[in-house]
Write a structure and sequence with these properties.
The complex is a heterodimer.
Chain A (H helix, E strand, L loop, with lengths): L1 H30 L5 E16 L4 E17 L3 E5 L6 H8 L7 E8 L3 E4 L5 H9 L1 E4 L13 H11 L4 H14 L16 H12 L6 E5 L7 H18 L2 E6 L2 H7 L2 E6 L2 E7 H6 L4 H9 L39 H5 L5 E4 L2 E3 L17
Parallel strand pairs in A: 3-8, 3-9, 6-7, 7-8
Antiparallel strand pairs in A: 1-2, 1-4, 4-5, 9-10, 10-12, 11-12
Helix pairs in contact in A: 4-5, 4-6, 5-6, 6-7
Chain B lengths: L5 E14 L2 E14 L3 E5 L6 H9 L6 E11 L3 H5 L3 E3 L8 H10 E4 L13 H12 L4 H14 L5 H4 L9 H13 L5 E5 L7 H18 L2 E6 L2 H7 L2 E6 L2 E7 H6 L4 H9 L50 E4 L2 E3 L2 H6 L1
Parallel strand pairs in B: 3-8, 3-9, 6-7, 7-8
Antiparallel strand pairs in B: 1-2, 1-4, 4-5, 9-10, 10-12, 11-12
Helix pairs in contact in B: 4-5, 5-7, 7-8
Classes of the chains: A alpha/beta, B alpha/beta.
Chain lengths: 370, 341
């Protein structure tokens, strides 16, 4: 009985938050008039229900993404970093509507349809949208069908959009060359390729329909160190050549710093800081960002020193703490932090932070460890 | 290189896997030393033989693999006893022998990347920890429990009394890794082999575990063989570093020399190719061209020659470069340095 009432309370909570989002979005619409923003996400939430018992009653929600706002400019690489379970992958998927978000808005400047809210698109609109967007996955072993040849894998999006026969074959060969694979490989199956080559196949497939916007979900995490650099270079070359915009989801700070123009940091479903890469790394404003920088192992034994090591563990997104989700681990937390959730504020131009104490704290950037 | 501090000496180790498709030379002539009380990092990409090297030291190479050549010497006595020759050739022992079983667990402990698969899911953490002692020492269950609780506190498991009765699935990833470290250290081994112990963990948890391992090494004085593909972790943890590529040790040196005076073209290229944090180049990375070859079809001569920017034709692709000593504790396997000598 108490379980049911609990659920009800939570559902009404969600509803209340939804109306909040609506209020916020009107704000976002006003700002979104600037021409160089390709995607503006506001109030994005994805709650996964947790089922319990024989009747599979909903016993609660995992707040994978819990009210996230950000924007991506045309032609840039926007990084989303955080530890596992922080919701960065879910955010990337929601933005493409690979999964349905619980609530939120994503205004996308489509080359054909103009400015559209991705979350409100119907079937026909989605089909157009999906032609202009693509995704590159982390694991090049499980993301390719072992029973399909490269022609079928890379050419599948083409068939679905009415390109067939010799034209399709030519396009696939061209795509393979673009990612540095030989056109003769077109008849081979994925098992014949190494991890790095498979990732190139995945990239070729993503580019088949000339997308404007590509979500790269940890594209180099599963690759060997000597292959990562090649793949990052390839992604950069393709961006220059084709004018692509990337949402780059990753957990390796060195990779993110190298490839991204702007970076957002997520913690337990919330976006805690967003800034231009150099500002974020040199002058972080959120204590969690500082801790991430301190924890990242650096490839130089002369930089060894006592780091700030965060105590405790990442909060459970099904039962997050009160106030700021980071407060139980935060070395700078005050009473306010456990009572009230901070808002995302633009403390410096284009440098956003979600922390009550941001601005009054002097935090260590990455150079403090050099 | 064999001196008083040597704990483990690996000489020309060869461990091959006999598959239907052919022979995989997973480790093909590896030599290095693990010093007493120090951390030896073993770094390399997937398939370079770093884990098989560790399995060879423990004599737990899975079938159809086996050690086909070379020797591994374990100096188990203290520094004083080493003079008296308190040593055993692990490679002379049968994997199932009593001597080998005594070494495993009590003299050499091992931890793995995925703690979940190293614990039994149907026994409590506490029972599994106590079992380690009960197997190797004749103590009462109560004493074993005491030692287990003490060790759990040692590795930073909060509330040992309560977690003693917990099952592995009830612990978080970081706590499970701590429990596994506790299990490996229960009998105070003189060597802890850590095979990618933090690869599955988040950066902030990884930092906690690395700090814990350093602290435990200071307190218990064991040597650590730290296997990883992450050069950042190596720089953070290791005293000596073994760099492997396709079954060979291409360079072995102190950690500072590895990062500041790398000699082997593979290591030099690898260090150039990783994005350095705080050094925003903005440009392209200096990538290593080509792919890691198929382990069934390792190139003749130096295994790195097809990707090497300093290839000497008709030498590197024909002759295997010998291990060349550049200093007291700096070895490189490359023809470039052999010519100089």
């Amino acid at each position: 009985m108490s379980e049911t009432s609990n659920v009800k309370r939570q559902t009404s909570n969600v509803k209340r938050q939804t109306s909040n989002v609506k209020r916020q979005t009107s704000n976002v619409k006003r700002e979104a008039s600037d021409g160089d923003v390709l995607l503006r996400v506001a109030g994005l939430k994805k709650y996964f229900p947790v089922h319990k018992g024989f009747l599979r009653r909903t016993a609660g929600f995992v707040r994978a993404v819990d009210g996230v706002d950000f924007y991506i400019k045309r032609g840039e690489t926007f990084g989303l970093v955080g530890e596992s379970g922080c919701g960065k992958t879910t955010t990337g998927r929601c933005v493409l509507r690979a999964i349905e978000p619980t609530v939120g808005q994503a205004l996308f400047q489509d080359q054909e349809m103009g400015r559209v809210d991705v979350m409100a698109l119907d079937e026909a609109g989605l089909k157009v949208f999906r032609r202009h967007t693509a995704m590159i996955f982390q694991d090049p072993y499980s993301s390719l069908n072992p029973r399909m040849t490269l022609l079928d894998i890379v050419g599948e999006p083409l068939i679905n959009n009415g390109v067939a026969g010799q034209e399709r074959r030519d396009r696939v060969e061209q795509l393979l060359q673009m990612v540095g694979l030989r056109p003769e490989y077109i008849v081979r199956y994925p098992h014949a390729f190494s991890g790095g080559q498979r990732q190139r196949i995945g990239i070729a497939r993503a580019l088949a329909l000339n997308p404007q916007f590509v979500v790269c979900d940890e594209p180099v995490s599963a690759l060997d160190v000597s292959i990562q650099a090649q793949t990052l270079n390839l992604l950069q070359d393709l961006q220059d050549e084709l004018g692509l915009t990337y949402l780059f989801v990753a957990h390796q700070l060195n990779v993110v710093e190298h490839i991204c123009d702007r970076v957002a940091v997520m913690y337990v479903g919330k976006l805690v800081e967003m800034a231009e890469t150099e500002n974020l790394f040199q002058t972080p404003l959120h204590p969690y960002t500082e801790a991430l920088m301190g924890a990242a192992p650096r490839p130089d034994p002369r930089l060894r020193r006592e780091r700030i090591v965060l105590e405790g563990e990442v909060a459970n997104p099904a039962r997050p703490p009160s106030g700021c989700y980071f407060h139980p681990r935060c070395p700078y937390a005050i009473a306010l932090c456990s009572a009230e959730e901070p808002a995302l504020r633009e403390l410096r131009p284009e440098h956003f932070v979600k922390c009550h104490r941001a601005g009054e704290l002097t935090l260590k950037g990455i150079s403090a460890y050099a | 290189m064999a001196d008083q501090d040597s704990l483990i000496e690996v000489r020309d180790l060869r461990t091959y896997f006999y598959l239907r498709e052919g022979i995989v030379r997973a480790v093909d002539g590896a030599s290095f030393t693990i010093r007493r009380g120090k951390t030896t990092g073993v770094v390399g990409e997937s398939g370079c033989g770093k884990s098989v090297t560790a399995q060879s030291i423990m004599q737990i190479v899975p079938k159809p693999g086996r050690i086909v050549g070379g020797e591994i010497t374990f100096h188990y006595g203290g520094p004083g006893a080493a003079k008296g020759g308190a040593q055993v050739k692990i490679t002379d022992l049968a994997p199932q022998s009593d001597e080998m079983r005594a070494i495993r667990g009590s003299a050499i402990g091992m931890i793995f990347q995925e703690p979940m698969s190293s614990f039994s899911p149907v026994h409590t953490i506490g029972d599994q920890l106590s079992e380690t002692i009960l197997l190797h020492q004749s103590v009462s269950k109560g004493t074993a429990r005491e030692i287990a609780l003490q060790m759990m506190g040692h590795v930073g498991i909060a509330n040992p009394e309560r977690n003693f009765a917990a099952y592995p699935y009830q612990l978080s990833g970081g706590m499970r890794q701590r429990a596994m470290i506790a299990m490996a250290l229960m009998l105070r081994p003189s060597l802890l082999i850590a095979d990618e112990p933090t690869t599955a963990l988040d950066v902030t948890t990884e930092a906690q575990i690395l700090r814990l391992m350093r602290r435990l090494q200071g307190e218990l004085g064991m040597a650590i063989m730290f296997i990883t593909h992450d050069l950042g972790v190596i720089a953070e943890m290791a005293d000596d570093v073994v760099v492997m590529y396709l079954g060979r040790v291409v360079e072995y040196a102190g950690v500072d020399a590895i990062f500041h005076e790398p000699r082997h073209p593979y290591l030099q290229a690898l260090l150039r190719s990783i994005p350095r944090i705080g050094v925003k180049g903005g440009g392209r990375l200096a990538a290593i061209e080509g792919m890691v070859p198929n382990p069934l079809d390792i190139p003749a001569g130096c295994p790195f020659h097809p990707r090497c920017p300093e290839l000497i034709p008709e030498l590197c692709d024909v002759q295997t470069p010998p291990d060349t000593l550049l200093g007291q504790r700096h070895m490189v396997a490359c023809h470039l340095y052999r010519r100089e000598g």
